[in-house]
Write a structure and sequence with these properties.
Shape: elongated
Strand content: 5-15%
Distance between the termini: 20 Å
Strand order of the largest sheet: 3-4-5-6
Structural class: alpha+beta
Number of strands: 6
Mean pLDDT: 76
Helix content: 55-70%
Order of helices and strands: EHEHHEEHHHEEHH
Largest sheet: 4 strands, antiparallel
Low-confidence stretches: 1-24, 30-35, 40-49
Length: about 475
């Protein structure tokens, strides 16, 4: 299996955001390796790709061809509470963007009121003044402060959308992994119960032979010990399955007390992990929504730093008002009572006790935090892909070795049973053979489950599958 080199990918993820955002300091970002250490590098296949977190991932879980899994994922996407929270946060971010955009447009207000006061230049007697009119104000974005604020909100909305995608992918993967863990328990429970049934049959026969004097008590006690130990294993697996079923219910947004998933028979659960295609392109990693969200959060922090820096510059606002004003409330709406004004307001900060400098310092610290968070997200993405690729390769070798062990242990059990019936070996030797066979079978099931878990983990690490679109 070969992977395209990923060295240009990080720069593309940073530079492909909003073109007008202040360029972040990339000196602290990690240098990506030429290839994953679990794979051989591919020569002459370098590519620069933009973030693709909005790319369609499709029903990636369909690769496992399990209709029960399909139905569970559909239910989780409809009712999972983490998804509902992420969707609400996206609505919050979009509302914040609309609010920021509204500040860049003219603001028109209607007002009416009555006041009573004295006018020293006219009379010392208090008079009543009625007013009604419209007030228009428009802050000109001369230095781009409002534009940067809108840009930051837009990037926040994009980050929230990417986080919603990330949460959706996380929920899908968690449902698949919880389901596979439960099915692995089903398979182990089936093996243990079958072995327990065989032990109990043998125990009943041995107890009759003991009563007839054909068998010693030591052999019977050893068999009783094996039955009790195997029964304890079966009960432990029952408890494990119950906990897994409850955890799956929470992922589906359902009450654990009312959720049941029928145990699969052997013919219904013979899943194998899909084969990861050779030549897996590094471009698929650009679809990771958490990486895209971290990138956009970094860009938003840079934009907010620009907003804080522009606070030192003057603000220019155009104002206009028009309406009616009269000391006689009955004449307020007459044409002769009309009044209007047009003006401009230029404000320049002189002294604010260090407030603007503190805001700029805080924005700079936020940008540094966002850069570190983005760097950590990229490192995490690389590690997760590396972990899953390495694990899947080793698990396949382990599965091959266990397949040979299962075959040998079954043959050993068959030979031991034949020799026991012929009186050539003791019952203890037969128990050892059966115990070894059960251990090999359970290990094979566990490795099969680990392969399925690893396949889901790789799909999640790659942003939703290994196909590019």
């Amino acid at each position: 299996m070969k992977l395209v080199s990923m060295t240009p990918l990080l720069a593309a993820l940073v530079l492909a955001g909003c073109a007008t955002a202040p360029a972040p300091d990339l000196s602290g970002l990690p240098a990506t390796p030429a290839a994953f250490k679990s794979t051989a590098p591919a020569e002459g296949q370098w590519a620069v790709v933009p973030p693709a977190d909005a790319a369609e991932r499709g029903t990636w879980w369909a690769v496992f061809a399990d209709p029960v899994l399909d139905e569970l994922v559909t239910r989780a996407l409809e009712r999972n509470t983490d998804l509902q929270v992420a969707a609400a946060r996206l609505q919050q971010a979009r509302a914040g963007l609309r609010e920021a955009d509204a500040r860049r447009r003219p603001q028109l207000d209607a007002s009416t009121g009555v006041s009573r006061a004295t006018d020293p230049g006219v009379t010392t007697q208090p008079v009543s003044l009625g007013t009604a009119g419209l007030n228009l104000a428009w802050e000109l974005d001369v230095f781009g402060r409002l534009g940067l604020a809108s840009q930051a909100q837009a990037l926040d909305a994009q980050a929230s959308e990417a986080l919603l995608q990330s949460t959706r992918l996380m929920v899908q993967a968690q449902v698949a992994q919880a389901y596979f863990a439960l099915r692995e328990s089903d398979a182990e429970r089936r093996l243990v119960r079958q072995t327990l049934a065989a032990y109990r049959d043998t125990l009943r026969l041995s107890e009759r032979r003991l009563a007839a004097g054909d068998l010693g008590e030591l052999d019977v006690q050893r068999l009783r010990t094996e039955v009790a130990s195997t029964e304890a294993d079966a009960l432990a697996l029952d408890r494990q399955r119950a906990l897994q079923e409850n955890a799956l219910a929470v992922l589906l947004g359902e009450a654990a007390s009312g959720f049941r998933l029928a145990e699969a028979v052997d013919a219904e659960w013979a899943l194998r992990a899909p084969v990861v295609p050779a030549g897996l392109p590094s471009a698929v990693l650009a679809r990771r929504p958490d990486v895209a969200a971290a990138q956009r959060s970094l860009m938003a922090a840079q934009a907010r730093l620009g907003v804080a820096q522009s606070a030192w510059l003057p603000d220019l606002t155009l104002t206009a008002s028009g309406g009616q004003a009269s000391t006689d409330l009955g004449d307020v709406f007459r044409w002769s009572a009309r009044a209007w004004s047009v003006g401009t307001l230029l404000s320049l900060p002189i002294f604010d006790g260090g407030r603007r400098q503190a805001q700029e310092d805080r924005a700079a610290a936020d940008a540094t935090i966002a850069l570190a968070g983005y760097r950590q997200q990229v490192l995490t993405a690389l590690r997760e892909v590396e972990d899953q690729l390495g694990s899947l390769g080793l698990l396949q070798r382990q599965a091959d070795a266990l397949a040979q062990a299962v075959q040998s242990s079954r043959r050993a059990t068959a030979l031991s049973e034949a020799r026991y019936r012929n009186g050539q070996i003791s019952q203890l030797d037969l128990l050892d053979a059966r115990r070894s066979e059960l251990r090999s079978l359970r290990q094979a099931v566990q490795v099969q489950g680990a392969q399925l878990q690893g396949a889901v983990g790789l799909i999640r690490a790659l942003g939703g599958g290994w196909s590019e679109g």
